[in-house]
Amino acid sequence: MSQKKKKIVTVGGGTGSYTVLSGLKNLEGISLTAIVSMADNGGSTRILRDELGVLPPGDVRQCLVALSEHSEAVRKLMSYRFAHGSLKSHSFGNILLAALEKVTGRFSQGVRVASEILKVKGEVIPVTDNEADLCISLTGGKKIKGQIEIGNTDLQKKGFKKIFFAKKVKLNERAREALLAADYVIIGPGTYYESLVPNLIVPEFKKTLKKSGAKIILPVNLTNKKGHTLYWKASDYVKNTEKYLGRQVDFVLLNNQPPSLAQIRKYKLKEGDGVLVEDDFFDPRAVRRPLISHALIKYDKNDVRQKFRSFIRHDSKKIAKSVAEIIKRKIPR
Amino acid sequence: MSQKKKKIVTVGGGTGSYTVLSGLKNLEGISLTAIVSMADNGGSTRILRDELGVLPPGDVRQCLVALSEHSEAVRKLMSYRFAHGSLKSHSFGNILLAALEKVTGRFSQGVRVASEILKVKGEVIPVTDNEADLCISLTGGKKIKGQIEIGNTDLQKKGFKKIFFAKKVKLNERAREALLAADYVIIGPGTYYESLVPNLIVPEFKKTLKKSGAKIILPVNLTNKKGHTLYWKASDYVKNTEKYLGRQVDFVLLNNQPPSLAQIRKYKLKEGDGVLVEDDFFDPRAVRRPLISHALIKYDKNDVRQKFRSFIRHDSKKIAKSVAEIIKRKIPR
Prior knowledge:
The structure is a homodimer. In chain A, 40% of the residues lie in helices and 15% in strands. By secondary structure, chain A is an alpha/beta fold. In chain A, the strands form 2 sheets. Chain A has a 7-stranded parallel β-sheet with strand order 3-2-1-7-8-9-10, with helices on both faces. Chain A has a 3-stranded antiparallel β-sheet with strand order 5-4-6. In chain A, strand 1, helix 1 and strand 2 form a beta-alpha-beta unit.
């Protein structure tokens, strides 16, 4: 029976993958693997990287929580951020992963032990076990190093040239196996150059995905990031992603439900025009569904990065339902 | 079948209870409950108490590790101490318990969730859920507050008068139930005024133990603490403990195996005379067995309190074997 399960692999960072995995976890007849970007260098993660020399735990933590079948208290524990003292702003889950890397000697091995502790349904795999310092070169010749620093740079104004890693990184062997065995690979959603592309540019990712018989599903982002993807339309996401992948995506999952007026107003006030992704992708691969979440997003006051987190998000149940439809009816092909 | 299991309750602090529980865990036909002192205010525990206002996790952590049936990696994780940065010297397990107290709202509830995560065989119960600041009054009228401060005071020179808590503490309801249901209660080993007595002076402890049909086993300490119990003999431990309990102990477990010459030499060099507890307890309740550990104790260089930890210790297997003999043969009565 388990051999008939559809093997789904998600590729992304923290928040976006969390949403997708939380929804997919409740689907029957699938097995789940999350491949997670390792480029994060902000907040609690940055402190742990700097002070302890560990790999960035933040994104992996969110995926572990999404797939944990443990009690609500344990899931809350993983996301709990200390409010005072020397542990201030650290999330417990980040500390757990940092300690496990130290105890087991290897980040991905630590993730495996954490999965066991958290009763994770499926598998969470860091895309690489190497230090993955993200870099971007600008057309002027300048180089920006670090995901956070890149996030704060207006790449569109300064001229984006190339995205790469400071040092050589190697695709995690388990990630390679999962990509080869996958029936479906879901790429995103997530901040484009900070969460998605840092997976796709790991050498061997592209090659492995080409060898794989998996169909690729691309849930297009709902919003653009200023200075990175401002004014991008759905077709830009498809085009750019296919460039990194070196192959076509098979399904383009598009939201056809407008955000609430309140959401739009709040967003425009904060971000201005061109942040809502326009749907211009008229192609048989398009799958249009209502995908937006109208839930009020609660921010954690101890999360130093809360103001950077998007408040127009996909709804995990809606996205899971659409993925289930793609798998069952194999639309459009 | 599980109703026939002998119910054993241990009472103590961190290191001593760890030793007893590690041994007893492997015995068949018993169920284990650890009642743990909450007076600790040193090292990593002190920082967490001061900065986060949580109850002291250190002793409970050690008992959880002793009873955990999880993988070796998880047990190592719990005792892992960070070596650098803002997390320096904190043990991971202490951080876990601090976070769980915050998430669940109550220390003993957090301990329960931790037990679930760690697959604990048996139950670990903090003796109280209240802040338990240990105090000692001296004959001159002076008062010393805090377990560590008490540990650093020469009570024998300055004149010990009374040991008590700064504020009212209440016996944990689960501890009360466990004491009432117990077949055997093992008190110690452990530093006398810092690990053992802070359990016995919790109001209702004495009364509850009197109501209980449990037999009391007292494994007498191997060494005395300078300034606290220097020159105490086995009979002093029995006499003093019975004073706190308001009743007789039923079995006095005494070591009849000398430490190695190397251990004695090292100990005398560091501590002087009168630290090895002499056996002067000639009473039918005495049970004499070889109980000493000859294992080399490895210290954790990131443990700020390592130099205070004893290096003449009970052997967990030997102590468990003796307890099993007491239970089976019911010697001497």
